[in-house]
């Protein structure tokens, strides 16, 4: 197998803009297109620190964006970089969300999952799809990408916050279930053709169960510790299927997700040790 240089070695780009979305979340723009599709990820090398996986928040053929939480050493260092500083990128890697033109899609996003979901939403609406978007966060200050979603055509936005500070009080998946049930009673079924989800794994487990119960196909974005990103190191293998989530994921169909015994239960760290969720 020949692995292209762009895959193996990061190329450095100068940051063209830095936007603070919230106290802990930053969106960074680079003057390059890597030809990424919604749901794919790239490896981001922060010189002097580490290389980490990030979902592509936008790749419009001219520029590429990432949106990230400053949680540890690498992301905190990245958040301090300024316009003009150099960051290494390689990729894109993995699978992406798939839809057909003019389909009706429910998009479920928690945390920074709102960023790749917006990328999917922008491309899907450009292909005539209509969207029901369910954004969830702890409280209203943590809601991401609302303004951007509101500008999209044929898009209805549903907001859920754990504390009820904006929209529905509770989880976004509970709100999706409520809307699915209400629409069923109004006989406007089938309400959506597919469900896409990106966010914390406990949210994905709820989406998986709901999608299974309602017999609506879904595609979920699963995260595992990534090192190489192109299927070589084996760090992102999941039990018992043995699939590598950097190449067979991160976007996985629900039928496959439900066969992953560790889904929602545990994951491996950088040394391959299991940690329970
Ligand atoms: C496919 C994929 C897409 C991602 N997309 C985004 C995104 O769009 N925005 C965002 O904020 N975060 C994203 N992440 C998570 C991001 O990679 C971690 O938050 C980041 O690596 C943390 O690094 P750190 O040094 O700041 O924190 P650390 O303190 O080193 O790590 C904090 C936690 O992040 C996770 N983590 C650390 N290194 C890795 C790694 N190499 N691979 C996977 N997880 C790791 C571990 O669970 C760890 O406990 C994504 C992860 C994956 C696997
Ligand atoms: S990250 Fe190396 S095989 Fe997936």
Q: Can you describe what's shown?
A:
This protein is of the alpha/beta class and about 280 residues long. The chain folds into two domains: about 5-95, Translation factors (Elongation Factor Tu (Ef-tu), domain 3, Beta Barrel), CATH 2.40.30; about 105-275, Rossmann fold (3-Layer(aba) Sandwich). It is about 20% helix and about 30% strand. Strands 12-11-10-9-13-14-17 form a seven-stranded mixed sheet, with helices on both faces. The mean pLDDT is about 95. It binds flavin-adenine dinucleotide (FAD) and FE2/S2 (inorganic) cluster. Flavin-adenine dinucleotide binds next to strand 5, strand 7 and helix 2.
Summarize this structure briefly:
By secondary structure, this protein is an alpha/beta fold. The chain has 7 helices and 19 strands. It is 22% helix and 31% strand.
Radius of gyration: 18 Å
Tell me the distance between the termini: 35 Å
In the CATH hierarchy, the architecture of the largest domain is 3-Layer(aba) Sandwich
By CATH, the superfamily of the largest domain comes out as Nucleotide-binding domain of ferredoxin-NADP reductase (FNR) module
Uncertain stretches: none
* Main structural class: alpha/beta
Q: What is the 3D shape?
A: globular
Helix/strand order = HEEEEEEEHEEHEHEEHEHEEEEHEE
Beta-strand portion reads 25-35%
Ions, cofactors, ligands: which are bound?
Answer: flavin-adenine dinucleotide, FE2/S2 (inorganic) cluster
Mean pLDDT: 93
How many strand units? Answer: 19
The amount of helix comes to 10-25%
Q: So what's the CATH class of the largest domain?
A: Alpha Beta
The CATH topology of the largest domain comes to: Rossmann fold
Number of helices: 7
Query: Which sheet architecture does the biggest sheet show?
Result: 7 strands, mixed
Order of strands, main sheet, comes to 12-11-10-9-13-14-17
